[in-house]
Amino acid sequence: MNKKQDFKEIIQSNINQYGYHITVVRSGSQPRYAYTIGLRELLNFELVFAGAIYYMYEEVIHIVNNVVIALKRNENLDGKIMVGSLGRFSLMPVDLSWSRLMLLGIFDYYKNDDINVYQIIPDQYHYTLDIPDMSKEWNVSSEPVWQWLVNKWEYEVPENSTVVTNVKALLGEPITEVVRVEENEWEMFAGAGPDVDKKDMRVVSLGTILGIDSTLLPSIHLEPGKGLWRGDADFEWNDWG
Question: InterPro entries in the record, alphabetically (predicted)?
Answer without folding.
Answer: DUF4262
